[in-house]
Design goal:
- There is one protein chain.
- It is built from eight helices and five strands; from the N terminus they run ααααββααβααββ.
- With about 230 residues, the chain is mainly alpha-helical.
- It has a three-stranded antiparallel sheet with strand order 3-5-4, with helices on one face. Strands 1-2 form a two-stranded antiparallel sheet.
- It is globular.
- The two termini are about 20 Å apart.
- The N terminus and C terminus are likely disordered.
Length: about 230
Amino acid sequence: MGRFKEPYQPAPGPARRRPRGGEARTAAEQRLAARAALAYTDASLPSGTSGEARLLAVLCALRVRPTGLAPPPPGITRSLRLHAPAGALAELQEARWLHYLGRPCGGPAVFVPELAGTRGRTRAGQWALHVLSDRRAATLRVSVRLAALTVAAWAEPSGTSHLLEPESAARGCGLSGQAFRHALDEVGAAGLLDSWQLLPNGLVRCSPTVPPPAPGGFELGCGESPQ
């Protein structure tokens, strides 16, 4: 997990540790939210959408408020090592997936019309940011980091092997089936995946190296409270 100079600090108050069962439920909810965001962006974005635009769309889907606003956290483009964030944002606007509303509170704000009335999962958004900005993935292409997020989103809490449907997983990353398999090789070479195997039934079995990272380490957006 990457280290950050300004980790999110909860409001002062008595420390409370969530029971183990509650922690397991929260982790499962975060992975489910990430799966839903990947599936939604796969279904709603044009097939030729770039990896950087897909990555931003996934994070917006996770962080959206009932108003349809989806404020990115401070420093997101630096943490995610995006090469052309303005171009990715313009690409999503051109696809009418979101509307750019300016920079209130010192950061950009976007409006996702199709998600108005729904609520994202801020903690799941933080968890996804940790996966995408893991120091082991620093040199990986954005589409490969999306593959790493897909693997982590389907991981089992116990750290045991789990299955992926490769065609839908590939589409969520903007990759062909063959390119997704190559991406899994790169995820493994980076130390984020122990091994993977294409099974006779067409599914992919993934064996993770470590459990998915816990949420935390990023500041919330301006005026935002954790969920």
